[in-house]
Amino acid sequence: MKTGQDPDVALVGKNIVAGKDFGPGIVVATVEELISAPRPADMADPLQLYAAYQSKRAAPVETTIWRLDATINAMKLEADGDYHLVLQGASGETMIGEIPTPTSAFVGTSPWLANIRDARKAVDDKFVSRLAPASFVPLGNKLVPREAVTMPEAAPMTMLPSFLPIPGMEASPVQPFKTQLPPTRVRITGVGFFDKVHGQMGVSLANGIELHPVLAIDWI
Length: 220
Fold this sequence. Notes:
single chain, 3 helices, globular
């Protein structure tokens, strides 16, 4: 579901709610509206995983393509290669947007491969290309800016010259990192997804809602 390889992928963007067809397209919302969206009654607890929803979507939230205006203020490169973006709304509330590794090896037959690739490139060009791994130090299982720790670990790490993927090797192992970003306004489009809440940076504690995958990014 996170990459569009699930049995319900053909339902996404059709905008059929309770049997009523509202016509295909993208639905405009806000961070605050999405974090207020109720989870289905049979997956109500955001702290739990539900086996039934590992292979089906929770309509209408997970079958809708949403578009939000928000502020990106932090990001992570996850160990699985996902870009994890913190999206902040006008009230200060936050939720997550995730961009998977844009390769067929990772997203398989997803109909959104080209969209994911474009969104990923937008983040690379805007943020990742400006980050210098030499300015990061290890903290636990990830890299953080030097300013994030008072006493960096003594053992030096072998750093790649850039966090950008090597062309043709996008699916190769990555150096996970986490960093604050200059608050940046964005119009971001993606598919709704109810994740399990497990302490993620910027997660919506109320319902675990994410845009996953992110399909488009426009700077505003």
